[in-house]
Design goal:
mainly alpha; 3 helices
């Protein structure tokens, strides 16, 4: 769990801004969004496999198998931050 309840704890200002841009581009900030073509869900448009792998790596087995769009905003932010720290910006195919 993130320090002090901040899902972005440990991220630089630039990384926080990057994730805000990703969220706005991917879903317009809608944590319940679902892409009808790909099935990607949530504010950051996670594919289920990426979500499951990230949740597992982050020690959040409770989120494995949960569709991203059904996870809380905190959990979506937390896993997006974890994925960014784990893989960098490459999971998102554009620059913000």
């Amino acid at each position: 769990v993130a320090v002090d309840g901040d899902p972005f704890a440990g991220l630089s200002w630039a990384d926080r801004q990057f994730l805000e841009c990703v969220k706005n581009r991917e879903s317009g900030g809608d944590y319940g969004a679902v892409n009808p073509s790909s099935g990607a869900g949530g504010a950051y448009q996670f594919l289920q496999n990426t979500w499951n792998n990230t949740a597992s790596h982050a020690g959040r087995g409770d989120l494995v198998g949960t569709p991203p769009q059904y996870a809380s905003p905190y959990d979506q932010d937390f896993l997006a931050a974890h994925l960014l720290q784990w893989y960098g910006r490459s999971p998102w195919s554009y620059s913000c």
